[in-house]
Amino acid sequence: MDWTAFLLSLKLSAWTTVLLAPIGIWLARLLAFRVRRGKGVLEGIVALPLVLPPTVLGYYLLLSLGGNSTIGRLWTGVFGHGLVFTFQGLLLASMLVNLPFAVQPMQRAFESLPTDVREAAWVSGLTPFETFWRVELPLAWPGVLSSFVLTFAHTMGEFGVVLMVGGSIPGETKTAALAIYDRVQAFDQSSAGLMSVALVLVSVAAIAIVNVASSRVGRRHE
Amino acid sequence: MSDPSLQVALEQRGRIPLDVRFACAPGRTVALIGPSGAGKSTILRSIAGLYRPDVAVVRCAGSTWLDTARGIELAPHERRTGLVFQSYALFPHLTALENVAIALGHVPRAERRAAAIALLERVNLNGFEARRPGALSGGEQQRVALARALARDPAVLLLDEPFAAIDRRTRRHLREDLLRLRSQLRAPIVLVTHDLDDAIALADEIVVIDRGRMLQSGPARDVMTAPASDEVRAILDLSTPVL
Questions:
Q1: In A, which residues are within 8 Å of B75 by CB distance?
Q2: How many Å apart are CA B174 and CA B161, to the nearest integer?
Q3: Angstrom distance (rounded) from CA A212 to CA B81
Q4: What is the ipTM score, two decimals?
Q5: CA–CA gap between residue B171 and residue B194 (Å, rounded)
Q6: What is the pLDDT of residues B116-129, one digit of tens each?
Q7: Which string of b and e fits B166-205 if b means at least 16 CB within 10 Å?
Q8: Global pTM value
Q9: Contact status, residue A84 vs residue A72, Cβ threshold 8 Å
């Protein structure tokens, strides 16, 4: 069992989920409440990582984050080292790949809120932020939580993009999914099996969390 | 001295035409009456800040809430309106008490609970504090919505078809409650209805509206006895006098 890889996967998943949360909520509310014209185009862009082959996506990320790219040069200028084959580069790629998993469930949840309930909040004297915090977020919570859990679980298992952008460097970018592949290649079935079980447990736990939370909120609204 | 009454002037062409001008003094009730789709709710929404007509002036309690010519537009939460939605629009995740307390932002935090309990008592809902909207009947939900609207300490109370979705008995009770409330409340009340009986029972003045246009306004009795046109007669469902 490669604990370093497993802990790295947990770290990557946690950071991706935490950093994507505000961006995802902002984008989801934008799509649910504000954007009218060009909504289809924006939704399409958000959904793109779902349909692109991970290796293709990884290839383009490698190009756009690499040492010759604008982003890569800017990053090197500020931090003194490149972005690809580092944890930070991996995190950035992971955030982009997970955009649809973060945005879509939340967007559906915000869209399902009755317009007059939001209006009632404003008329009751709540500022737009108070309305978000005290009315929208509690009511959309199952969708928001689904987003977090999906993002986390998906990052734990991501393979193609991680391999392309991260390059499987132990302790830096070699995640559990890459380690499993690595162990299988080395005919180390017991390690591969152990780590696979660990990933299965994380996935099952994720689904359980979403189900329990959704049913709790459902009961609360009855 | 600033004018404490509600003054509304709305004009708009296009898909949702509007041409309405009326005023309502504190303690008085105006009923907007007209067929469904006449634009009554749009007028109410314009007062509350949920809709912005092309050309509009809304003044209330001495302050200007909306003046398109002068570029003044207050957000809904900056206007002191109490709006009872036709659908009630209660917050389903909050108890009756929390639904009312959330509109008490202007009251010190420590006093909100007591104030919310008092408001629920005022609409005859003592004992219902801990219930969520899902566990309340339609009539009870409407009372919570009314208590929430009053919690705002409104400079104008807006009622959107309050009788639309309730049975006859509840309707009679609600009418009595609103009459009682009207005598206590020192704020203008604007009531939207398509029912003449409700308008006569509750309003000092009625404004007859069709396709966004104001056809006639005045004391209910005057409008009924002397409808200005056949259109008004038809909307109020008055029989044509035999000459």
A1: 122, 128
A2: 12
A3: 39
A4: 0.92
A5: 14
A6: 999 999 998 999 99
A7: beeebbeebbebbeebbeebebbbbbbbbebebbbbbbeb
A8: 0.89
A9: yes
